[in-house]
Amino acid sequence: MRRIAITIVLTLVAGLTVGAAGAQAAAKRVVALEWDAVENLSALGVTPAGIADSRGYDAFVGAPRRKGGTDVGLRSAPSLERIRRIKPDLIIVPDYRSTKNRAALRKIAPVLVTSPYRGKGDAAHFNNMVRDFRRTAKAVGRRARGEKVLRTMTAKFSAQKSALRKKRRAGAGVVVAEPGGTTSTPALRLMTDNSLTAEVVRRIGLRNAWTGPNTYYGFTTSTIGSLAKIRSNEWLAFVYPEQYRKSIQKYRELQAFARLPVVRARHYRNLPGRTWLYGGPVSTGQIAEQVGSAVRRG
Fold first, then answer.
1. Which H or E run contains 124?
2. What's domain 163-296's architecture?
3. Are 210 and 220 in contact (CB under 8 A)?
4. Do 224 and 251 form a contact (C-beta atoms < 8 A)?
5. How buried is 14 (Cβ within 10 angstroms: 0-12 exposed, 13-18 middle, 19+ buried)?
6. 3-state secondary structure of 96
7. Pairing between strand 186-191 and 173-181?
8. What are φ and ψ of residue 61, in 5° steps?
9. How do beta strands 219-222 and 207-208 pair?
10. Residue 19 CB partners (closer than 8 Å, separation 6+)
11. Which CA distances in Å does 137 have to 28, 31, 91, 148, 268?
């Protein structure tokens, strides 16, 4: 009987040991092939070992990133050789950028594939952002810190909602736009109801006033004429990076722009050029603060 008991105990201990060894260790050398992954890792206190287009991140994304890491090339065409030299234990890449090289990436390291634009419904992109952030936090062993980051984002929603209510702006309609096209031939991207930005607008107590149909990436590409649909009691919040300043200035000098109801009502606002509309919880919190502040002014 004693021998049987000892055998059972040893078996249980062995099982626990195998379980501990079999558990996946937190990734430490992570390559981020999209800017939201760079932002998310930084928010979690992890410096990416590899970054796709680090200069572009610094130009377009306002969320701070941890300095360091090797630039591995363009987001659309990262260098497999540079990634291989890093010897990562995890690669994070979105589904829409990995259709051609996913198999090659998996030969280098485990791959975490995110899906920021999948799904239907007005909150789809927001829900995807939260899900992918939590998956990243789990992969790098920072789940508790990740939940703290999400709580900070939610607190910013509540603060903006309260501030807008005090200014009697609750329920106001707002259209968030950014440049599309090229610097020489600019177009406008107007955020649709399924976009991350539109969900932020709703969560701070405002209304997305752009009525275009939902699209995969969450925006309608249009021209200045489409802005005439924005009523004088609504708001236009426009984001444009420094690179687009001259071309956007040409828009603003047009008489057609000056005659827009929303412009004549002085409800046109510029948001900081590095307001990134496709990021993680840090960028999302910044969107809430900047849109809320824009609508409260004036």
1. helix 124-139
2. 3-Layer(aba) Sandwich (3.40)
3. yes
4. yes
5. exposed
6. helix
7. antiparallel
8. -110, 125
9. unpaired
10. none
11. 12, 14, 14, 11, 38
How far apart, in whole angstroms, are the C-alpha atoms of residue 207 and residue 194? Answer: 13
Among the ranges given (22-31, 65-74, 98-107, 216-225), the one the predictor scored with the smallest mean pLDDT: 22-31
Q: Compute the distance between CA of residue 46 and CA of residue 68 in angstroms, rounded to an integer.
A: 10
pLDDT at 183 over 90: no
Domain with CATH 3.40.50.1980 in the chain: 30-148, 163-296
Alpha carbons 234 and 114: distance in angstroms, whole number: 35
* pTM for this entry: 0.89
For 117-126, the CB contacts below 8 A with 24+ separation are: 117/216, 117/217, 117/218, 120/194, 120/214, 121/194, 122/193, 122/194, 122/198, 122/199, 122/202, 122/214, 123/194, 123/199, 124/194, 125/194, 125/195, 125/196, 125/199, 125/218, 126/196, 126/199, 126/200, 126/284
Least confident range of 83-92, 177-186, 269-278: 177-186
CB-CB contact of 34 with 52 (8 Å): yes
**pLDDT at residue 298 above 70?**
no
Which overall architecture, per CATH, does domain 30-148 show? 3-Layer(aba) Sandwich (3.40)
Residue 110 has pLDDT above 90, yes or no: yes
| pLDDT value, residue 245 | 79
Better-scored residue on pLDDT, 250 or 194:
194
Structure tokens at 185: 């031939």
- pLDDT band of 65, cuts 50, 70, 90: very high
Average pLDDT, the chain: 90
Report how far Cα 183 is from the mean position of its chain's Cα atoms.
23
